[in-house]
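Hi Y.,

Following your request, here is the sequence exactly as I used it, all 378 residues.
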Amino acid sequence: MADNMTSLIANLENLLCPPGNGVFTVNTAKARKEKLHLACFGSTDNVEQLWQESLRNLAHGSDALLLGIASDCGGGILRGANWGPLFVRSTLKEHFPDSGYFDLGDVRVIPHLLHDKYLNQATIENCNRALYQTQSGKTPNGQDSRQYPVSPLSITQDVASMIYASFPQKGIFAIGGDHSVSYPLVKAYLQAKKVQGKRAAVIHFDAHTDLLTERLGIDLCFGSWCTHILQDLVDPSLLVQLGIRSSGKPKAYWQDTFGITQHWADEIQTQGVEVITQAIITQLTAHQVDELYVSFDIDAIDEQYAAATGTPEAGGLHPQVALDIIRILGEHFSVTGADMMEVAPFTNSTENAKDAQATTLQVAGEISALLIAQIARP
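Below is the corresponding structure, written out as tokens. Let me know if you'd prefer a different format.
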């Protein structure tokens, strides 16, 4: 076990970086990063070393593991979700200081990349050298870098798979990033649950279905990630989508074509939280579901409360409605994985939202804190 733990920590040291450092910059947001580092480590000096030392406590830390993936290469409307991990994490530190999570840090993100399958071998080798400072295929700590992916989605899936294999009882709460980031997170989660003999469902809050087969020829992106995790579910109906309201096709098309389950925003508003949650509980109980993964796109919330995102939409959920749904489902099923996606702090394309950044971050922070608490509970 000791050898396995040593190997895991060495891998994490290479694949990840300190919290807030997932966006590679020199001076941009320097003060914000330093404030976060001070909150995390009590210092702004030797952050890399302090973070590496903190990883040695992984086995004894909280069962809720926080991971940032500062990638918006899989988006495509308004960019800026790559700043989500820094800002949401800072919001948790400032406004929800009792959130009981262990911070793994951030995925190392080359901002031009998405998934390794889109790269040729020469690009992979060049990026490998850039990310891992390799010499003759070895990283500075002696690991064989040729085993390492270089794109954020590929790195994320490797990290999540390693964590679940080493610590089946722990769950990852991830902060994105555009919603393509949920693809590797959910895929690794569902595959791990199958190995553990658990039946899992995915609860997906979003204004959009994310059920395209591809977008402009790219199969893994913010609009298609759900399509590509269906094969890992016991039954496609165990993808339960909440808050949908922006779609070129009616609800019946998505449910009949993919076999998934949807509760659109207007249904939730009309029928109420109790009716909707009871329908979900009855459905999941009939399928003998053990555990839940909750993927939360902030645009599931009405643009009045969540305008700092790439695709804000009117007619969405009130924050309290989302919180109530998560809380009620968490009383009946174990939430063992979750994410918060599409928070773009510098973005606001609406005309009527005031102080969009602060409002969106407060909502994202409150929902994130609840999900973390559910993952961390015994």
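The first strand starts at residue 16 and ends at 17.

Thanks again,
Q.
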